[in-house]
Amino acid sequence: MNRKTFIMYLTFFLPDIALATSHREESFSYIQLFLKTIIYIIIFILVLFATFYVTKLLAKRSKPFFKSKYVEIIDLINLGSNNKIVIAKVASYIYILSINNNDTILIDKMDLQSFYSRVKEDRSLDKDLSDSIKADKDNISLENEFKKILEKFKLINRKIDKDEDKNEEDD
Q1: Residue ranges with strand state E in 20-144
Q2: Burial letters for 92-101: b for 16+ Cβ neighbours within 10 Å, e otherwise?
Q3: Where are the beta strands (DSSP E) in 100-166?
Q4: In sequence order, what DSSP letters do the residues of 119-130 get, joined into one string?
């Protein structure tokens, strides 16, 4: 970078640092410039942290405004930008709803007890599936081991065949 582009860079993009002192000050000090830069960086970082924590605080405080006495959202699944499936608890019933921009459709309505019994069944099904997947992984690892052993035998057989061919040629 030549001197002219460096001076242009300093005057256009960093005017405070390029001047580095006020017009009232008689002397110029690199230490003051360094300290001012550090202070500006610290202030910038503090502002970033303050905005982060204030938005978190506002989110926590606004939660009660959006909470309902009678409806509890158990689960919500986004199926794209405009489609959702919502599982909501109202009194002693569970409603499974499909919501999009134009309408809301009731998919299913069930008692609270039957819903939780189905959830328990599904969890046991998930456990059975994960156990069978683990068993399949064990079988796959055993199969890979057998393939490695078979490849070793093939290599040994090739060496033996080469040695036999060499011996036949010598005879």
Answers
A1: 71-78, 84-90, 93-99, 104-111
A2: eebbbbeeee
A3: 104-111
A4: HHHHHHHHHHHH
User: What distance in Å separates the CA atoms of residue 60 and residue 64, rounded to the nearest whole number?
Assistant: 8
State CA 34 to chain mean position distance. Answer: 38
Looking at residue 39, what DSSP letter applies?
H
Q: What is the DSSP letter of 82?
A: S
Which runs of consecutive H residues, i.e. helices, occur in the chain? 3-13, 15-19, 30-66, 112-170
Amino acid at 155: L
pTM: 0.40
- Measure CA of the first residue to CA of the last residue in the chain; give whole Å: 78
Closest CA to 87 of 100, 102, 101, 99: 99
Closest CA relative to residue 34, chosen from 14, 10, 11, 17 = 17
* 8-60 residue pLDDT tens: 666 666 655 544 445 555 556 788 888 889 999 999 999 999 999 999 888 88
CA distances for 66 relative to 60, 62, 70, angstroms: 11, 7, 12
